[in-house]
Amino acid sequence: MKLPVEAYLSAAGAFQPIDLHFARLMCHLAGASASEELFLAAALASNVTLDEKHVCLDLAARAGTVWELSAAAATGQKDCLRLPELEQWVEKLKAASVVGEPGAYTPLVLDQRNRLYLYRYWLYEQQLAARLAARQRLPLRSVDSSTVNAVLRRYDQGPVQLDLFQKIAVIAALTRGLCVITGGPGTGKTFTVSVVLEILRCLAPDTTIRVCAPTGKAANRLQEALQRTSDDTTTFSDQPVATIHRLLGISQGSSKIRYAPENPLPADVVIVDEASMVPLALMAKLTAALSPHCRLVLLGDKDQLASVEAGSVLGDICAAFRINRFSPEFCSTFTMLTGQPIPNKYQEASGFLTDCAVELNCSHRFDPAAGIGALSSAVKEGDALRCREVIATDASAQISWHALPSRSELETRLSEIVRTWYVPLFSEPSPEAAYAWCTKFKILCAYRQGSYGVEGVTRVVEKILREHGITDAGRRLYQGRLVMVTQNDYTLHLFNGDIGIVWHTAAGDLAALFPDASGSFRTIPSARLPEHETAFAITIHKSQGSEFDRVLIILPEADSALLTRELVYTGITRARYHVELWVSPEVLESAIRKRFLRASGLCDALLSTVCT
Questions:
Q1: How far apart are CA 193 and CA 170, in angstroms?
Q2: Which domains occur in the chain, in start order?
């Protein structure tokens, strides 16, 4: 290397300033045991955790790799950096005083599998694994069979029936200390948990049940979904759904938390929806706040995009536990409570890591053999060839594919889309009627920036709207503008991801209207509107938890590490009836073949903790 590693990396712009500052601090604290290998490892550990959202730095995956770094600022030429070989790297790190083995109180922790952690994230992972494993080991709870059977019989005789795995999930949630219910859109996760809530209330009306979700948007959608499942015999209108932060009493911008091990959350059952969006740190804090007797139920789609912060907790949990495998004891309990046997192929004699994870695999929305159902299944499996076949031969009219237009053609291609799906909302007589268009169609992008990102597409959409005489250039607020909140405002009960519509009030002022759980709209004066952005196009990440009749997915012209099968799967499954893809075949197939894997030791920690 032409320059010492610190100066070289600073000039090359390979890391964020905080990464380099952390690496300098580690070398300063290490004193005589500092080395270039330590500096590189510390900078990388900070970067992959804070920027790439891994939980740790996998040294084995990085060792010996070559980076091309532009060091033009310092050397006027491109140079490359080869990371140390694994054996040499590990040897230098073990010699550094700031690096310790698991259990040591050092800023960096190096485990037996050569994963390097920032201490805080290692502790989160170990504590979460221990608490989940403790709940998994709890004995089966006894519940009144006549009560359970009476409720399930009513559903068996009703218009909407529970399938086998929905029933298994219900019994697991009632009898296990930990229950994970995963499944794709339309598999009935919310309906299943509504049955759990009903039976819990029948068994013990004074049971304290807390229902929560990682975001305000997800919490509101769950509240609405639970109300839709209410009928003449049961209602969940009085079952509040909170964000996890509000449930735990975490103050915005503060490290204070109301509920913790020394002051447990008063709850007998905690149900977490959209668990795939919960990062490691928040899940660790949630489980720390639960008393030993509290049951924990996690709902989510393990194949969706992971959280926007570090970790892929739901995926790691599902990778550790035996999904849809059940012990003899659980099978006997299930039969006793339902009068129905669990087929032999789902039984596991050893009972090791069984009973806790249930995957709902019967879609009540999509035909698995055609259209969106077949395409999402192929994407989930990473089968690019099958995806190509589904798109080419689809007879369901649910899928259409077009090559990505050039930048000069983008406006022409979007004109028909805007004329069909956005222009009509501006001629509606009421904001309620106009807002209905929000659920009919949405443009989804992979990125925020760039010509094919949210910002670029939104500029084109608004230009087309101006050409239709709908709005003037330079006007930020105009009637019919769709807006998405980007910052929580608990006073207004508006949350990151909530979508509203700008409309004139009776007084002639412009305000934003947002739907609430009751189906009516709340009016927020424009001056009080929290941070927000135009929402004719949104990122696929922001679309999680939402559903639209039709979606247009626009992927960029060049492949990148961020384009993965999880991103494509999440985008496709936002559509109820039709998905349109604008992407080159090469970029789509490359994305489908790539998995979004975050470095983590949670799966191993769960396995080792359960075994001890």
A1: 7
A2: 4-127 (1.10.10.1020), 144-331 (3.40.50.300), 371-593 (3.40.50.300)
